[in-house]
Specification:
The structure holds two protein chains of two kinds. Chain A is an alpha+beta fold. Chain A contains 17 helices and 29 strands. Classes of the chains: A alpha+beta, B alpha/beta.
């Protein structure tokens, strides 16, 4: 299918094609029918022409015959003197135009022994006289005299030139004169009448058929009695047109002509090409044949002229129609094209674009005015939306800021992933609205104690967020004290209950973990018990709980306690998880919660948390989150790997042979670690190497170890300090207490050289810890790596 | 961790200048101790430890220094240290080992001291 670029073109092309097709079919049919009609008509015309010519000629010849017959009867019946006969003859010739001449020729009689044959004929408008009885003519030998006598009836002669008579090409009608006598009739002479071929020709000349059509007369012997070309007279038609002999159709038609049939046949033209119509008929009792021959194409000439005229009219009409159509289509499509361009610009945001102007009330005008109305409404609507959007943006901006402020109140802003040597903490808070009422927090109260809190304020949105902010702020005050969870909850409840006209309340779970011992003390203010994941099973921690906070005061909150084992995970959550709905209004529930945690038990806290939240999300299956979701996971690794609790991310350990030769390895290991940690400060490197060497050398020199024994060194760091710990399996020896204290500042003489190493350790580090642990000495030092840091960690 | 020592004697054996390069730790201290023990004898008035290229010292190294100082004092000489890097200074400061040490903070200071010493000797000869 061709894709036209414009409606107008399509309209014009289709209309033109259809119109031309209709015209061609109509014209062709018209031509065909007209042609048949014309051919039929011309056949008819030819027949009529021929029969009319036959009629005319017959009438004329009949007239000649009748006059002659009558004259003969008169002469036969009445006995007239030669003078009377002569006078009558003269009178007959003078009266009849058609007659060229006439004679009465008689057998010699006593009164005219040399014969009697007066001949009157026309010449130069007068009737002249010739005496055929003159001896040299010999009229009694002439065919016109001999034939009627022989046949004893009237005959038409073949055409001949009457030498010495009329001196013209003529045919003669001769009637024998009989006189009754005893024993029958006696021949006494003939009466003749001459008709010149010119006279015949003048009749035939009246027949006009086309340009080159002509009629001709043939004698019974096939001689031409008349022909357009006079020189052909008296000759055989076949002789004139020898090709007839080679054309079967012509031969047949000519034979039929001579036989005396009447018909019209279609033949090849004798001269030139094409078809001709050939009409023929016998001419009364003369024995002559009349024929008409004319080319068919000349008959069709008017048809062709008619057809070409009609074609011109049709073509002109079509052209006019197409012009009109083009104009019409343009007037329709011009506004449509303009409208399309305007709509395009409108669509790309140009609301001020000018719509095309269309006069009238037609469909296009209606369309344009509909577009104009749409443009107006669009402008109005967009202005309104812009205004509403501005308002909403401002509100959203404020809510967003509030959300950020709220999130920043939480450790790691609601997305925590903390790794310590003793435990991992992972938390995630997803508010249902941009601000919410859930919260969590934790505080490393000192290096051995971790406070954990999760809570859920009644209601959601801004009021809940404000109440939550108040709760968190108060919590941080109370948590800073050394109070146990039940005491913290009691104090918090007392503060929240004051000035709580809105009757907001919060459920809250608060626990403290003794990192070293793994003991978790906790109290709950109406908050669901956390799940303990141990050995691949998730079960709620048994707990006695008090009421929600903020309602009444004073209240007591039972204190619960659980002993954690290395590998245990505690999952703290809010009801946004277990009460998450799916589109079928089913709850996620505790069973799915427990199963999701069990599924991911071998993983670490981050994998477990993300798995649980993904389970909740896929369960909700697109149902809107109805409540804030908070999840806090604590995985307890057991006692710290170092004597101080520090983050695990930088932890490194190395084993060294208990001999001085390993000192180079120790230095290299330390240097590599510091570079890895980007702590490549020359002074720090020097001090730590010195400290490491002093401790290591002490162990090697005084520990009494075998050279095959190993010494373990551990390193880690946090934002402020580097921790370095040595573990050896020598006998119990606490350098902090057992090393001699050097006496300094004395003269070199007096200076005690021993104990310098431990002294340097004390001077170059911020804190030193020793513990005899399971048959091992553990000596740990902390050194601030950031010169701006003040004070050592406890 | 290695230590390289280069010794030059000046003023007819009265001054020994020992340049230390590398680390003076528990492993390398015995070498230096042996080297210094060989050098310290009566008639050596000043032993200078040039620490320009010394990057590290531990308590073992300090003990060698103190021991050398002690030996020199008893043989009538004295020990000087020169060109200590800051971290070395810090360690010396911590153990407050300065009262009996002569300290040169630069080559110029050391050269000036040695030149003055030589002049004094020459005057004494006169």
């Amino acid at each position: 299918m061709v894709h036209y670029r414009s409606l107008a073109l399509r309209l014009v092309v289709w209309t033109a094609a259809t119109t031309i097709l209709i015209y061609v079919v109509a014209l062709y049919n018209d031509y065909r029918i007209s042609r048949e009609h014309i051919i039929e008509k011309s056949r008819l015309e030819a027949t009529q022409t021929v029969s009319s010519a036959v009629g005319d000629l017959s009438a004329m010849l009949q007239g000649v015959r009748r006059s002659t017959d009558l004259f003969a009867q008169v002469l036969g019946a009445a006995s007239m003197t030669p003078a009377q006969t002569d006078a009558l003859l003269r009178d007959v010739v003078a009266r009849r135009d058609d007659l060229y001449g006439a004679t009465v020729a008689l057998e010699p009689a006593p009164e005219f022994p040399n014969g009697f044959a007066p001949y009157y004929f026309r010449s130069g408008g007068t009737v002249r006289y010739a005496d055929l009885a003159a001896a040299e003519y010999g009229y009694r030998e002439q065919p016109w005299y001999v034939e009627p006598r022989r046949r004893a009836r009237a005959v038409w002669s073949e055409p001949y030139f009457d030498e010495g008579g009329g001196n013209a090409l003529m045919a003669t009608y001769s009637v024998p004169l009989q006189r009754a006598r005893a024993g029958g009739e006696e021949f006494i002479g003939v009466v003749t009448a001459d008709v010149t071929l010119d006279r015949l020709q003048s009749y035939l000349n009246r027949i006009r058929l086309g340009e080159s059509g002509f009629a001709f007369l043939l004698s019974g012997a096939g001689r031409l009695l008349s022909y357009p070309d006079r020189s052909a007279l008296m000759r055989q038609f076949v002789e004139l047109n020898p090709q007839i002999a080679n054309d079967a159709a012509w031969r047949n038609a000519y034979d039929r002509t001579l036989r005396g049939d009447t018909d019209v046949v279609r033949l090849r033209c004798l001269s030139g090409s094409g078809a001709c119509l050939y009409a023929f008929s016998p001419l009364a009792d003369t024995g002559w044949r009349i024929a008409v021959l004319y080319p068919e194409h000349e008959m069709l000439a008017p048809l062709r002229e008619y057809s070409s005229r009609v074609t011109v009219i049709a073509a002109t009409g079509t052209a006019l129609l197409l012009l009109a159509l083009t104009f019409l289509a343009r007037t329709i499509t011009r506004p449509l094209v303009a409208l399309a361009a305007a709509s395009e610009r409108l669509g790309s945001g140009d609301l001020e674009v000018e719509m095309p102007v269309v006069r009238g009330r037609d469909e296009v005008a209606q369309l344009v005015s509909a577009f104009r109305r749409m443009q107006g409404r669009l402008k109005q609507y967009i202005a309104q939306i812009e205004q509403e959007t501005a308002t909403r943006n401002r509100l959203q901006g404020e809510l967003h800021a509030a959300h950020q402020i709220q999130m920043e109140m939480l450790p790691h802003a609601g997305r925590a992933d903390v790794r310590r040597t003793a435990y991992d903490l992972w938390a995630r808070l997803i508010p249902a609205k941009s601000v919410g009422g859930d919260f969590y927090t934790w505080l490393e109260i000192d290096r051995g104690r971790l406070l954990l809190v999760i809570g859920d304020v009644s209601d959601k949105g801004v009021p809940a967020a404000l109440f939550m902010a108040r709760t968190i702020t108060l919590l941080q005050q109370f948590a800073a004290t050394d109070a146990s969870p039940d005491v913290i909850l009691r104090s918090l409840n007392a503060s929240l209950s004051e000035h709580n006209e809105a009757c907001m309340f919060a459920t809250l779970w608060c626990g403290t973990l003794d990192v070293e011992k793994g003991r978790l003390d906790f109290a709950s203010g109406g908050h669901a018990a956390p799940l303990l994941v141990r050995g691949g099973r998730a079960t709620p921690l048994p707990q006695q709980h008090g009421p929600a906070l903020g309602v009444t005061t004073p209240l007591e909150f039972p204190l619960n306690r659980v002993q954690l084992q290395p590998g245990d995970m505690i999952a703290l959550y809010t009801d946004g998880i277990d009460e998450a709905f799916n589109p079928q209004h089913e709850q996620f529930g505790h069973e799915r919660l427990a199963k999701a945690l069990q599924d991911s038990a071998p993983h670490d806290t981050r994998a477990a948390g993300e798995h649980l939240l993904a389970s909740v999300k896929s369960f909700a299956a697109g149902a809107p989150q109805s409540d804030d979701i908070t999840l806090l996971l604590l995985e307890y690794h057991g006692a710290s790997r170092l004597l101080v609790d520090m983050p695990a991310y930088a932890y490194a350990s190395g084993e060294f042979a208990a001999q001085l030769a390993a000192l180079g390895d120790l230095h290299a290991w330390l240097g590599d670690w510091l570079r890895e940690q980007r702590l490549d400060d020359a002074e720090l490197l020097h001090d730590l190497r010195l400290v490491a060497e002093e401790i290591f050398v002490n162990i090697v020199n005084y520990g009494g170890l075998d050279s095959g024994d190993r010494v373990v060194a551990r390193l880690t760091r946090d934002d402020t300090h580097v921790a370095l710990e040595f573990v050896d399996r020598a006998g119990p020896w606490n350098p902090l207490e057992q090393a001699p204290v050097p006496r300094l500042g004395l003269s070199i003489d007096d200076a005690c050289i021993g104990g310098l190493g431990v002294f340097l350790i004390g001077q170059l580090t911020d804190r030193q810890l020793y513990r005899r642990d399971d048959g091992a000495n553990r000596f740990c030092v902390l050194k601030a790596w950031n010169p701006s840091t003040e004070g050592a960690p406890t | 961790m290695t230590l390289t020592t280069a010794v030059t004697e000046q003023q007819g054996g009265r001054v020994a200048r020992v340049s230390l390069t590398g680390s003076l730790d528990s492993n390398t201290a015995p070498e230096l101790d042996a080297e210094l023990s060989r050098r310290i004898r009566p008639g050596l008035e000043v032993l200078v430890l040039d620490m320009k290229a010394l990057s590290y010292i531990s308590s073992a190294g300090l003990r060698v220094v103190f021991k050398a100082a002690k030996a020199l004092i008893s043989s009538g000489g004295k020990l000087a240290v020169a060109n200590r890097q800051p971290q070395i200074v810090k360690v010396f400061d911590i153990v407050k080992a300065l009262p009996d040490l002569t300290v040169f903070s630069s080559d110029a200071e050391m050269d000036e001291y040695l030149r003055a010493m030589q002049e004094r000797v020459q005057r004494g000869d006169d």
